[in-house]
Amino acid sequence: MSSxxxxxxxxxxxxxxxxxxxxxxxxxxxxGIDLGTTYSCIAQLxxxxxxxxxxxxxxxxxxxxxxxxxxxxxxxxxxxxLRNAIASPDRVVQHAKRHMGEDGKFWKIHGFxxxxxxxxxxxxxxxxxxxxxxLGEITEAVITVPAQFSDAQREATVQxxxxxxxxxxxxxxxxxxxxxxxxxxxxxxxFSVLSEAQQxxxxxxxxxxxxxxxxxxxxxxxxxxxxxxxxxxxxxxxxRVLVNLAAERFIAQFGVxxxxxxxxxxxxxxxxxxxxxxxxxxxxxxxxxxxxxxLKTWQVERGEFEQSSRVLLERCRQVVQRILKDNxxxxxxxxxxxxTG
Length: 341
Fold this sequence. Notes:
The chain is α+β, with helices and mostly antiparallel strands. It has a domain at about 235-310: Alpha-Beta Complex (Actin, Chain A, domain 4), CATH 3.90.640. It is built from ten helices and 18 strands. The chain has helices at about 5-10, 20-25, 80-85, 115-135, 150-165, 175-185, 235-255, 260-280, 300-310, 310-325; strands at about 10, 30-35, 40-45, 50-55, 65, 65-70, 75, 90-95, 105-110, 110-115, 140-145, 170-175, 200-205, 210-220, 220-230, 285-290, 295-300, 335-340. Strands 2, 3, 4, 5, 11 and 12 form a six-stranded mixed sheet that branches. Strands 1-15-14-13-18 form a five-stranded mixed sheet. The protein is globular.
């Protein structure tokens, strides 16, 4: 089965890819892009129909969705941009995806204004440059978007793709893409392994957004039954919980707030991100705060972190309950819960 045939069998109102659109696409290689709030990546379907993630110029499989403008006006995207964020936070743009579709949102750097579309285009261009080094010319791609993206946000994504040099841009909702990956597995584009119909709940908690979808799949068909989500809830919100925990301890000891200067806040944010990752596998993690010539390290317990972030978990629970209730699903009708993000 070809990649075009597989994608054309995704049915339901939540997907932006249509049979007509796919039928008109050329027979060029299939390229997929995950344009994320915090990290982005690009992949292709190889000759066996298997998805293969492509590295960027630095050999990384994922690229931080961060853009830095240096003193000479050069644009740096990715890990190096993230490193520069501490020393020059006023010349760094992050989390542009959360502002897609906002006409009045701009970042002013070196006297120029950059919109979310322009920042996203720079990230996409970075991904495409690395992919073109390996594959040659790329003119078409499918970009994943949150299921709850509005028409304006989807159009902004298309504009970013075109500004990055793509002639044709199609979109697929992020939880649908995750469901397809789960269904197809690593053996390529082959639905024959599905002996009976199953229904899965996709829980996709990304860096900046939460996406849910109920997907029914059976042999030769993947159907999106329902979708829901929260465009203002993602991993960076858990990071901010740790930022605030450490900042409050610093204030209690030194009487000053490390969040009041961009440099100190950026340093603390990177520390909190690393601590968050550590707390996924450890009972405690260290966070260092640097502000006004003071340097202090604290240990944060996982229990304290979970307690402080319980409101975020409750928001997740509410979205899960809403999608089940609004569509009259009980847990007995869900065969599998797929967590991703």
